[in-house]
Amino acid sequence: MIVVTDVHKHFGGFRAVDGATLEIKEGSITGLIGPNGAGKTTLFNVIAGVLPPTSGKVTMAGDDITGLPPHTLFHKRLLRTFQIAHEFGSMSVRENLMMVPGGQSGEGLMAAWFQRARIADEERALLKKADEVLDFLTIDHLKDEKAGNLSGGQKKLLELGRTMMVDAKIVFLDEVGAGVNRTLLNTIGDAILRLNRERGYTFCMIEHDMDFIGRLCDPVIVMAEGKVLAQGTIDEIKNNDAVIEAYLGTGLKNEVPA
């Protein structure tokens, strides 16, 4: 679905991404791991249009999407979440979801004056969709809660729910497990698996929790120093000497049996 070919992203003399080439297959849950500073989030930002590449190419289903802005990729149903959730804190959880779909009639001044019945119909449909999403994510009891009052894990679920409001094709998850307790992390994992298996979502996720990666992801891609270092199953990655060396004992090495 997504093919990244020899992508570079430089900041002055610093090569954050230095010739990365990889493929994210349709219907997969692909893990992207590596030590801090490996270029993972920068690569996400290039794919998702947040940053233009210095050079290289990104395609989606064969179409060149290199450098397209996030709002254009949104309409192609390519979405990403962030390590720090971006919710509208003063609005309810349900309202946060209802705001996601673009092109709503109520956004236009003339429609707001002369097409009130159409707007009301759209809002009823959005309300129904939002409630279905909240039920799917098992957070329907929070629908009227202000989003700013949610815990970190609940905010990550809300971000996942926002991708469901537009039936995303591919979602890039940036450290979805960061700061999330184990119970909520399991809930998030269950939702990702269901979206993948029942609704055909493709995911690519950056994550440091190797148990979480091992439960969800196949394949796993390892980056180091802006390049792709290795790719394989979680067991192959854990036993790859080059990967162990790249991590320098910061976590992955300790996961490998002696």
Automatic annotation (TrEMBL):
<dbReference type="InterPro" id="IPR032823">
    <property type="entry name" value="BCA_ABC_TP_C"/>
</dbReference>
<dbReference type="Pfam" id="PF12399">
    <property type="entry name" value="BCA_ABC_TP_C"/>
</dbReference>
<dbReference type="InterPro" id="IPR017871">
    <property type="entry name" value="ABC_transporter-like_CS"/>
</dbReference>
<feature type="domain" description="ABC transporter">
    <location>
        <begin position="2"/>
        <end position="250"/>
    </location>
</feature>
<dbReference type="InterPro" id="IPR051120">
    <property type="entry name" value="ABC_AA/LPS_Transport"/>
</dbReference>
<protein>
    <submittedName>
        <fullName>ABC transporter ATP-binding protein</fullName>
    </submittedName>
</protein>
<keyword id="KW-0067">ATP-binding</keyword>
<dbReference type="InterPro" id="IPR027417">
    <property type="entry name" value="P-loop_NTPase"/>
</dbReference>
<dbReference type="InterPro" id="IPR003593">
    <property type="entry name" value="AAA+_ATPase"/>
</dbReference>
<dbReference type="Pfam" id="PF00005">
    <property type="entry name" value="ABC_tran"/>
</dbReference>
<keyword id="KW-0547">Nucleotide-binding</keyword>
<dbReference type="GO" id="GO:0005524">
    <property type="term" value="F:ATP binding"/>
</dbReference>
<dbReference type="InterPro" id="IPR003439">
    <property type="entry name" value="ABC_transporter-like_ATP-bd"/>
</dbReference>
<keyword id="KW-0813">Transport</keyword>
<dbReference type="GO" id="GO:0005886">
    <property type="term" value="C:plasma membrane"/>
</dbReference>
<dbReference type="GO" id="GO:0016887">
    <property type="term" value="F:ATP hydrolysis activity"/>
</dbReference>
